[in-house]
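Today's session is about reading a structure prediction critically. Students often jump straight to the picture, but the first step is always the sequence itself: look for stretches that repeat, for charged clusters, for runs of hydrophobic residues. Only then move on to the predicted structure, which in these notes is written as discrete structure tokens rather than atom positions. Here is the chain we will use throughout the hour.
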Amino acid sequence: MRHAAIRCTLFCLLIFWSTIAMALAQEQQPSSTPAAAAIAGATIAEWKGNIRLSLPGQLPTNPLRGQQLPPGTILDTGSGRLLLRLSDGSEVMVRAHTRLQVQQPSLTDPSYFQLLLGRIRALIYKRTGGAVPFELGTPSAVIAVRGTQFDVEVNPHKVTEVDVVDGLVEVYGRNATGGSVLLEPGFSTRVGMDSGPEQPEPTNEMRPEVERPEPGENEISAKSELEVEFERAEVDREVEIGEPREKTEMIEAQEISEQTARAVEPDTKPGSEPQ
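Below is the predicted structure for this chain, in token form.
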């Protein structure tokens, strides 16, 4: 009887400690998504031009201002452009001829977006403390930031180029073991499909054609730099379209004036008097 009581007590203690161990293991197990996954997805703030939007499981449609884009959405800008806003106020401007996919960050792929082709400019608000860095993926690179403004471009050969306007950006090669590089403002790097990132070089040497925002534009207008740039790009585009139209109208007006002058010109010959 005594031995039976001892065995019962030991069995109960074993169950008790096993339950505690399982509870502790569940508490220490990391979540399936980063703590910052709350900013997954995006909202369309502005858009112009011929843009195709493919929501998960749906046929391509035109975008709507204020539309929520869940993970899995694919954007094709064609000749247009659009401005995305994240829930924390961060912004991503998607330029023309760009293909971008919205993602849900996970342990295997913590990127919020996949830039498949084309060029974007991102303005990511600073993330402090233990917040997970914002990450952007491309076919050849991974870009990690905690708060900065930067450009990323992917060409048809899947080569990635990163240019930093403000803050610090860390760039990894996706398919190589060459480590990472840290980019400071005004510097750029390039990453191929089977190579690590190149050593940083000044942007005006590696990519002299890159346009950069004017300092303080957002302070003057009370708008973000990307909003200002979006509006400026639309004005420039309208000017480019308007100039040929104005020239055509001037030529047409000149031709009409010449035709009118010929129509009213008197029919005179040398040595003769007008009738």
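Discussion point for the tutorial: The radius of gyration is 30 Å.
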